[in-house]
Amino acid sequence: MLTSVDTDLLRVLADPLRLQIVTLLAKETLCTTHLIEETGARQTNLSNHLKVLREAGVVETEPCGRFTYYRLKPDVIASLAGQFADVAETARATAENNVKRSCP
């Protein structure tokens, strides 16, 4: 039943570095320099991952002088969490009602 979950967003968040970036941005708005320090990633690699997160709508940017700050968009994460909650509720109901398809 995972087809009801946004699989494109799952692919975006499945990368360990992107998930680390999301986790860091959940705590505070950070610029690329901060993210490089926190993750140990190279600037080019980090920028590529941030581009993926921006294009997926997970983060938004805020220019500040010569720096760009990144902020997590919590509604996107909350929506994905809600989709998983729906899947969990369906699984719970299935288990309680002992729903199973008979074999041919």
Structure write-up:
The chain is α+β, with helices and mostly antiparallel strands. The chain contains 5 helices and 3 strands. The protein has a 3-stranded antiparallel sheet with strand order 1-3-2. The model has no long low-confidence stretch (mean pLDDT 91).
Question: What's the gist of this structure?
Answer:
This protein has five helices and three strands. By secondary structure, the chain is α+β, with helices and mostly antiparallel strands.
Number of helices: 5
Spatial ordering of strands, largest sheet: 1-3-2
| Oligomerization status of the protein chains | single chain
What is the N-to-C order of secondary-structure elements (H for helix, E for strand)?
HHEHHEEH
Q: Fraction of residues in helices?
A: 55-70%
Q: Overall 3D geometry? A: elongated
Number of strands: 3
Low-confidence stretches at least 5 residues in length (pLDDT < 50)?
none
Largest sheet: 3 strands, antiparallel
Distance between the termini: 21 Å
Strand content: 5-15%
What class would the helix/strand composition place it in?
Answer: alpha+beta
Question: Average pLDDT value?
Answer: 91
Rg, please? Answer: 18 Å
Question: What tags apply to this protein structure?
Answer:
alpha+beta, 3-stranded antiparallel beta sheet, 3 strands
Topology:
Elements: H1 7-14, H2 16-27, E1 30-31, H3 32-39, H4 43-55, E2 59-64, E3 67-72, H5 74-96
Antiparallel strand pairs: 1-3, 2-3
